[in-house]
Design a protein that fits this description.
The protein is an alpha/beta fold. It is built from 7 helices and 6 strands. A 6-stranded parallel sheet has the order 3-4-2-1-5-6, sandwiched between helices.
Amino acid sequence: MKNIPTHIAIIMDGNGRWAQKRGLPKVMGHRQGAKTVREITTACSEIGVKYLTLYAFSTENWKRPKHEVSALMKLLGIYLKEELKTLMKNEIRLNAIGDIDGLPGPVSGKVKEVMDITKNNKRMTMSLALNYGGRAEILNAVKSVAQEFKKGECSLSDIDDKYFQKHLYTKDMPDPDLLIRTSGEMRISNFLLWQLSYAELYVTKKLWPDFTQKDLVQAIEEFNKRERRFGG
């Protein structure tokens, strides 16, 4: 592969359907999905991807049954604890975007702990979108810019794309080059609405727990066939 995307974003969809097809509770699909996260994260770091952003838990996911949300939060805590060695071994820095403080205290604390431990890793940055919503992110950025304008810290002429982007959760990383969505759904589900403006989209019918390194390679090969014009 000649042209490796600098930043890949993934909507990891299909855990529940994967479990239902096998007559299993949904939490088993989420557990299997966590294994796929490990495999794909490691593969991305090995082939030279610099930024990987995974849509892990949206602001809308709170509407799910309480027992499922509780299981997801517990699984996230377990994942972070178990994967710390893998992150350190592969020089992967953990980042989180979204309202992290809105997560249950123990989970929020664990996320921040692992972020701090891995902060000096340089090979790749893996961002988990947790309690994340694209509209909420843009609204928060607008409020932040408005406050600066009110204080006289900026003028209208100062506010351009670059200035606004500095107020987003993703201010320290480039926009995604490639968005991958599993399960065949043709929508972006309130994910990175600003950042995906010129990303190449790749949708596969495979459910996330069935997504493999081979599928990742196919997505990147398809990306290499695209002519990126950035609106030009």
